[in-house]
Every structure is written in structure tokens, then in C-alpha cells.
């Protein structure tokens, strides 16, 4: 079967916008999914909708909606993608699948709020926190002046390492969000050191700075106003490829971190459970969804993690909660080694309105640890039979002019490097995309790791007369073989609306895009005040 020619099941139940509104407030578990491509989703969507594009539905669903008996409501923009997604999910065992009649258009017609951007609940929450807590901030020029004057200033970048290395504040130390309270005590040993927390824009700067303030550290803490974008817009130079990483805490630093986390746990009523309780939750997965998140760094997770856990570094889990968990009102169990990072992450999720959030005591001592990354669970993948071609075999076919490649890579990464001559396509639009490419002796499909290409193989075979093969190991295998890459948007079979472009991903009008983005973030707090679909929680200091 597959996306291109899925046989229609019985029409899924349709729900109206008003009915969906009631469902979102009844306290039961519900997964609201928008199956358009992320770039299209980012233009206009429902607040609580998670972006799960039809093109990657089989890959994303086991992670973000693991319980197949949960209520699922699918929406789109009226293009018919929701019906196709409902058919696929029903075929893969999801038993309570509904479609929002009229999609986003019908929701807006009822007078309900619609949003632009991505990770909106988390972004709006950041603005809510700044307004509620009056989180202190400092402009780029003042920070630069203090730094140049030789004052004691530590700049902590709260983003993941890959983002930090792309661009950062000169001298800034990478210390992703949930790591701040864990690692800060050895970085800023003197209480008269000014600590500046930054991200690319606003949210992680605000949440990071407020994390340290909530933890009660003695230093003055500020968020860099508007992050690296604010630094750039102030006319200051950004650093590239820095490698200043926050160290693991010393025994003394760890003791201080644990004390700080205990203060946070008390203020925000963080609940702690043991492994036996988690096992009991797991036995109830037919009735309640359980997410098991390991909130440590990716490197620590790869070095050893428990089976069935998902790596969700704490800062990113708070920054993009909808990317990790699409089921509202689920249980969230957080795992780390010393409890500090799990406690800090839990404190923010609780304030975001999640009710059943738990820190698991001594989880990593409860069973065998597995190295590397788990094999991804992909709906229906094991049922797909296809023919493969090795990277060097494909190279020979390309050199001879007998093979053509379709690449299902995200457009941003395609732009940065792809197989020479490969056509960028969107799997959900494959039928139309195939009409735009040359007809040769062999059609080869690729994707970053080959999974989406394999899912698309039977669909492509039904839509073209060309023989179809999948690049063994995907584009990663081509790279590993040391074969050449080309850059740029060279061959497009579709638009580049597959992903959302951050301001600094753009190639023109970058500063204008930065200003627009920062204004959008600031204005979210007023929009969220008009919406009753989320309730952020305030706790006394």
C-alpha cells in the first residue's frame, strides 16, 4: 500500500471545529495532528496541533503518538491530506481516528485563534514567563561593553551544540537549557560574576535565565535581549565554530546543583516516583499514554540508556514540547543520572500546564544500559520489499547518464549538500513531482538514512514506468563513501515549503526576517491571552 494509492477505508469520522474545541477541554487524552508539510503548517495552524507531515507519518507517529487507541484528530488546509493520513493510520492499527471537517479554515471561521510559526505553545510560554517573572534582560551593546571593560561576565549559550557551533556570541560557552543549573556552579565560581544566557532569539534565553534565578544561585543573571539575532542586529560580530563547552560538574558543583534543584522541586511541586511505579504505568499503556524521556545530553544518552526511552534533552523538550509529545494529557516520566536536569525540566513542563509529569529516581541503575541510538520504529517498514543499489553503483549510473535520483531530504539540508543531479521532492506530492523529472533507465530514491526512500519505493513503482531502486543506506552511505556532493537548490520537483526557514536560514533580507521573527515572539503573549486552549500555571516565589 502507501501514500500514493492507499485504498480508501470507510470514511473517517468528521468532527466540527466546535466539537474539537470541546474535546480539547474535556481532560482526556487527545492527539491533534496537522499533516501538511512543516513550512505550510508554519503559515497558519491550530495552537495545539503537532506538525506530523504526511510525508513522514510512519516515522513520526510511533514517537509522538505511541498509543494506538488514543483519540487522534487530523487537520489540514482542505487539500485532502487529512483523509489520506487517516487511511494510513487506520491501516496501521490506530483505532480512533477523526478528521477536522474543513480543517484550519473551518477552525478560523468559528472565530478561534490560528497561529503562525512552529513550537508555538513553548514560544508563547517563554513570553508568558518573561511577563510574569519580569525576567531581567540586557542589550547586546551593554554586555559587549562590560566584557570589553574586563568585568566578570560569563555568557552561557542555552542551545544544542550544533546550533551553537553555527553561530554564537564570542566567548560564549555552550550549556544547553537543562544543563545550566547542573553545570553553572563550576563555571561562575564567584558570586559577583554576571551570568548572561542567550539563544538565537528569545525563548531559551528567557527560560534559561529564569532557571538559574529560580534555582537561587547568588549571581546576577540576565537574558541576552533577542539572543544572537539581537547581537547581529546591533552590528556586532558573531563567532563561528566555537568549541567552548561547559564541563561536567565537580563533586562540589554537583552538590550545589542538587541543592538548587531541591529548591526548585519544592516551589513547583515536582513529583518523584520510583522505577516500580513507572513499570505500573507501562502496564496501563492500553489506557494511558506514557512517554519515557531521557533528558541528558545526546552524548550521554548514546553512551548508555535504558530500553524504550527517548532522548529529549531537557532544554529542547521545553523549547519544542510539541515535537516530542503530540498526545495531550499524557504521562511524562523524566530520567537522568542525578535528578537535577530532570527536576529542572519537570518544573517548566508543570508550569506549561502538564499535569502528570514525574522525575524517576535512580532510573539508570534499574536495568541494563544500551549504547548508540535505538533502531527507529517505523510503521509498516518491515512489510516493504524493494530493490537496492549501492552508492558506487549509483555513481556509475549517474556518470553514464542512465540513472535519475529523487531525494526526499529536507530542503535546507538538500541545499547544503546532495547527490549531484538529484531532484528534491516531497513524498506526499510524489505523483505530481514525478511528472517533472526526466525519464531514464533507472529511478533511484534516496533520503538521509534511506527510510523514507524505502517507504516511497512501492508508491513510486506504481506511478512510473521506470524501474525503481532505493539507495542502500541513503545519502549517508553516499557521503560515507567519499563521493561528491553539490550544493544549492539545483533541481526542484516541488516547492521548498517542506520545512520552516528560520531567519538565519534565509539567503536574502535576513535582518528584516530577524526583526519580524522577534516581533512575532513578543506578540505571542497577547495572542495567547485571547485563547483558552492552554493554561499556563503561576507559582508563588
Summarize the structure.
This protein is of the alpha/beta class. Strands 1, 2, 3, 4, 5 and 14 form a six-stranded mixed beta sheet that branches. Strands 6-10-9-7-8 form a five-stranded parallel beta sheet. A five-stranded parallel beta sheet has the order 11-16-15-12-13.
Walk me through this protein's architecture:
By secondary structure, this protein is α/β, with parallel strands linked by helices. The chain has 4 domains: 13-118, 3-Layer(aba) Sandwich (Oxidized Rhodanese, domain 1); 124-246, Rhodanese-like domain (Oxidized Rhodanese, domain 1); 268-365, 3-Layer(aba) Sandwich (Oxidized Rhodanese, domain 1); 384-480, 3-Layer(aba) Sandwich (Oxidized Rhodanese, domain 1). 38% of the residues lie in helices and 14% in strands. The chain has 23 helices and 21 strands. The strands form 4 sheets. Strands 1, 2, 3, 4, 5 and 14 form a 6-stranded mixed beta sheet that branches. β4 (71-75), α4 and β5 (97-100) form a beta-alpha-beta unit. α6 packs across α23 (510-529) and α9 (180-187) crosses α12 (251-267). The model has no long low-confidence stretch (mean pLDDT 96).
Amino acid at each position: 500500500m502507501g501514500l500514493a494509492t492507499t485504498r480508501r477505508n470507510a470514511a473517517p469520522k468528521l468532527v466540527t471545529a466546535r466539537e474539537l474545541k470541546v474535546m480539547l477541554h474535556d481532560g482526556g487524552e487527545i492527539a491533534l495532528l496537522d499533516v501538511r508539510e512543516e513550512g505550510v503548517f508554519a503559515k497558519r495552524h491550530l495552537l495545539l496541533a503537532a506538525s506530523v507531515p504526511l510525508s513522514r507519518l510512519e516515522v513520526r507517529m510511533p514517537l509522538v503518538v505511541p498509543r494506538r487507541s488514543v483519540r487522534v484528530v487530523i487537520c489540514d488546509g482542505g487539500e485532502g491530506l487529512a483523509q489520506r493520513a487517516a487511511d494510513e493510520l487506520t491501516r496501521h492499527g490506530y483505532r480512533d481516528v477523526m478528521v477536522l471537517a474543513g480543517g484550519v479554515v473551518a477552525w478560523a471561521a468559528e472565530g478561534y485563534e490560528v497561529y503562525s510559526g512552529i513550537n508555538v505553545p513553548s514560544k508563547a510560554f517563554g513570553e508568558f514567563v518573561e511577563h510574569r517573572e519580569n525576567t531581567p534582560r540586557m542589550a547586546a551593546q551593554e554586555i559587549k561593553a562590560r566584557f570589553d571593560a574586563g568585568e566578570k561576565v560569563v555568557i552561557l549559550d542555552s542551545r544544542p551544540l550544533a546550533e551553537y557551533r553555527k553561530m554564537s556570541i564570542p566567548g560564549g560557552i555552550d550549556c544547553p537549557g537543562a544543563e545550566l543549573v547542573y553545570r553553572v556552579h563550576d563555571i561562575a565560581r564567584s558570586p559577583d560574576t554576571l551570568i548572561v544566557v542567550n539563544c538565537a532569539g528569545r525563548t531559551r534565553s528567557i527560560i534559561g535565565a529564569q532557571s538559574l534565578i529560580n534555582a537561587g544561585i547568588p549571581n546576577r543573571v540576565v537574558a541576552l535581549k533577542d539572543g544572537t539575532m539581537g547581537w547581529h542586529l546591533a552590528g556586532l560580530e558573531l563567532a563561528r565554530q566555537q568549541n567552548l563547552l561547559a564541563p561536567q560538574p565537580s563533586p562540589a558543583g554537583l552538590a550545589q546543583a542538587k541543592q538548587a534543584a531541591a529548591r526548585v522541586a519544592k516551589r513547583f511541586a515536582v513529583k518523584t516516583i520510583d522505577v516500580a511505579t513507572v513499570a505500573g504505568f507501562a502496564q496501563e499503556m492500553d489506557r494511558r499514554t506514557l512517554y519515557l524521556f531521557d533528558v541528558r545530553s545526546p552524548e550521554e544518552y548514546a553512551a548508555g540508556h535504558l530500553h524504550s526511552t527517548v532522548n529529549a534533552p531537557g532544554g529542547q523538550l521545553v523549547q519544542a514540547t510539541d515535537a516530542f509529545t503530540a498526545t495531550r494529557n499524557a504521562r511524562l516520566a523524566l530520567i537522568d543520572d542525578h535528578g537535577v536536569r530532570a527536576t529542572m525540566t519537570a518544573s517548566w513542563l508543570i508550569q506549561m500546564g502538564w499535569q502528570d509529569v514525574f522525575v524517576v529516581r535512580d532510573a539508570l541503575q534499574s536495568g541494563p544500559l544500551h549504547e548508540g541510538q535505538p533502531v527507529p520504529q517505523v510503521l509498516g517498514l518491515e512489510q516493504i520489499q524493494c530493490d537496492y543499489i549501492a552508492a558506487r553503483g549509483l555513481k556509475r549510473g549517474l556518470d553514464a547518464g542512465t540513472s535519475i535520483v529523487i531525494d526526499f531530504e529536507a530542503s535546507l539540508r538538500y541545499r547544503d549538500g546532495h547527490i549531484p543531479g538529484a531532484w528534491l521532492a516531497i513524498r506526499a506530492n510524489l505523483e505530481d513531482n514525478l511528472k517533472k523529472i526526466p525519464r531514464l533507465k533507472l529511478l533511484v530514491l534516496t533520503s538521509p538514512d534511506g527510510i523514507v526512500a524505502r517507504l516511497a519505493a512501492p508508491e513510486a513503482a506504481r506511478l512510473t514506468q521506470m524501474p525503481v531502486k532505493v539507495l542502500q543506506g541513503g545519502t549517508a552511505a553516499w557521503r560515507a563513501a567519499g563521493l561528491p556532493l553539490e550544493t544549492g537548490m539545483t533541481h526542484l520537483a516541488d516547492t521548498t515549503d517542506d520545512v520552516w526557514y528560520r531567519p538565519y536560514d534565509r539567503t536574502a533580507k535576513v535582518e528584516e526576517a530577524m526583526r519580524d521573527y522577534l516581533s512575532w515572539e513578543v506578540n505571542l503573549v497577547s495572542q495567547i491571552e485571547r485563547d483558552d486552549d492552554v493554561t499556563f500555571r503561576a507559582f508563588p516565589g
